[in-house]
Amino acid sequence: MTDYQTNNDGGSAASVAEANSLLNIEGLNVSFATPRGTVDVVKDVSLALAPGKALALVGESGSGKTVTARTLVGLNAANAKVAAGRLDVLGRNALKLSERQWRGLRGKDIGYVLQDALVSLDPLRTVGQEIDEALRAHGVRGRAARLERVHQALRDAGIPDPEVRAKQRSGELSGGLRQRALIAQATVLNPQLVIADEPTTALDATVQAQILELLSGLKEQGRGLVFISHDLAVVSHLADEIAVMQGGRIVESGRAAEVLSNPRHEYTQALIDAIPSGAAKGRRLSTGAPVSVAARSGGPGRTTEFSETAPAIVARDLVKSYPGPGGTRRTVVDGVSFTLERGKTLGIVGESGSGKSTTARIALGLTQPDAGSVNLGGFAWSGTGADQVSEDQRRRHRPDIQLVNQDPLSSFDPRFSVGRVITDALEAGSIGTSADRTERAVTLLDQVGLPPSLFNRRPLTLSGGQRQRVAIARALALQPRVLLLDEPVSALDVSIQAQVLDLLADLQSQLGLSYLFISHDLGVIHHVSDDVLVMKDGKVVEAGTAADVFTIPQTDYTRQLLAAVPELPARELAAKEAP
Amino acid sequence: MSVAIEPTTARTPLPGGDQPGNKPDGRRGRTRTAVLRGLRGTPIGVWIAAAVLAFLVLAAVVPSLLTVKDPYIIDPAGAFTAPNAEHLFGTDQNGRDVFSRVITGTGQSLLLGLAATAIGLVFGGLLGITAGVSGKWLDSAICRFVEILFAFPGLLLALIVIAVSGTGVVTAAIAVGVGTAPGYARMLRTQTLQVIAAPYVETARSLGRSRRHILWHTIVPNVIRPLFVLATLGVGQAIVWASSLSFLGLGAQPPAAEWGAMLADGRNYIQIAWWIAAFPGIFITLAALTTTVVGRHLQQRLEAEV
User: Fold this and answer.
1) If you measure CA to CA, which chain B residue comes closest to A492?
2) CA–CA separation, A248 vs A270, rounded Å?
3) Which domain CATH number covers B193?
């Protein structure tokens, strides 16, 4: 096994590879045996890592980064075949390690922080028991001594009141605390090497900032860190070295500052361009051609009473509370007012629990508010008391406002094919005749950039981006005036997200749609919005034009939120020198 | 030069399916492997079960294809003949051919099982779906009623029905159906509640569909979808129950060639002629086992899909 080549053109990886390295990998190949033959997932990957450094694996879903990371802890599936010119982990030849030897390393010398804290902790056991298990597995004796270490690990991970938290189950903890608990579990035995798979994905910006700080603390303690992320802004804050993966290969690697400020590979460049931000406002994020709605099928459109002069949505003093424990009431939306102008985008930003989704449901007329009113395109849409609008009155206007949510798959009837999803929507709006609905559906698919060949496919067999396009096509089928976009790109890779955001911008400019855009991602909100609403604990803390809110925030909360957003260093001052 | 991030080309799926790295596509990967497992990797046990089940169905539909002997001809001289080339399963105390009786009984047993399951599903389904859809006091009322039925063991419930309406094949089917109904009612109520809470029902609402349309075109079809599998699983159990009733002399009556009745017949002679009871018993076991194995497999595939 001598015939390998490194495609590491960064040059710097080789320099740290010399002495005392935690990882030294050359020509790693991982393939999987499937009934249809062998699939190569990781191809000729070379990596190196020194203590006190952080290496980021960057790439999209399916680029092989998770499989690469799992190989480093010997956790690949049974049908995986690992080959390498050199695979030294902590100075030992990992190709020759038995499962028993791996178990000795895992947890003790290598900590692995799993993705998705929600499902990675056993819901039936307390956090303390979960961490204690790692200690027991590695033969740490003494109940009291172990308990002390559990508390210490939780404290080190920045969890307040570790004595209390250790007795709680994962369901009782917030997302940020769960992620910290996972990190505590991975680091309780002081491993030299920590591997983290998407450690901050799905976390709110402020929580993400705290976790990033915690991880860089691990680095300062002299541990080596390998982490996976698709978010280049996150990467820029933590990584010393970056390896960009595409299709199982490393297409570019080198010092973080260098790769980000001066990308050599076009794929890296595309990933950087795809990041939505205020700076990129009005600019296309993806490289695809804009869609054209010119080909819109003729025939009679839907008649609508939607006003051509009134704002698209006017919401006044919305209040909604739900019963809480012990007869109390929890107010989720507390006096929210906003106006969505026709043809514009209003962004609602807030962390989880800020009430933005409930506000969206009230705007959609799916949740009845306790107080306040909503006016949609000039007609009463939702209200209370004497202004109450019945569902029968509302149904007539329902086509005017359509929803696209985070998980499009769950919004498709599981029996339906792609085509049926759209023809069903057309039928619901009595648009077209049963004969020409198929043709209209194909046109709608074309509008969102999908080929007619997908017509008979099941949504389940589509990629995340394609599913979101189908959901958008369905929403457009009824010729709505307003689209409510609830975290529409949160589950998508950054490059797919760029394409969907571009598509939404094209459709808005050509169809004159108004968007109510909800997201926890400030970069996305800044990119798409004309006006912005910042929500916290059910209240609007700040409202204004996107330019104002993002450049001269008026409240401390907005400033905090903005400060927590990791941003790529500006191109010119990319001088984060590696010491 | 453009970069290869095309929107419409499906990306290569990760093998193994469950790699945590591809979160948005995780479901896609899992289904693909599920389909593969379903078509090519079907366990050998399921194939065997399916083959045996096919044989039973064949015996039920055209028994004449498998046996030419009359199951009811009495031949006292040839009684208690052990299994041999002429009488594969031997003969009973009256000299009747056990093989042809077992084969002839297949039709009755399967039909009883199917009918009982159908009755249980319809009865339980009406209760469960009504409860799930209506909510409030009607839901509570139906739930309490079903709980009362649950308080009786299923077979006891069946016995009550027979005590009221007398013995016979039709009564046995109804009795077993009623006995299994509470289970179906509870399952279908849960299924209904799950479907109602699904985002696609809300989507139908925001498309402007009426309540009635959503009920009949979205909720009910999706509730009923897994019923076929549920029924396959239920048939096996229903066959055993129906045979039990016949064994107790409450279902099919002698001299009818029915497995349960034959088992009851044969138990008196088990020490001198084990085959009279053993073969009907084996067939009852086979019917229950194969439908359960096939049903479980279908259920797993359906679950992998949803």
Assistant:
1) B24
2) 17
3) 1.10.3720.10
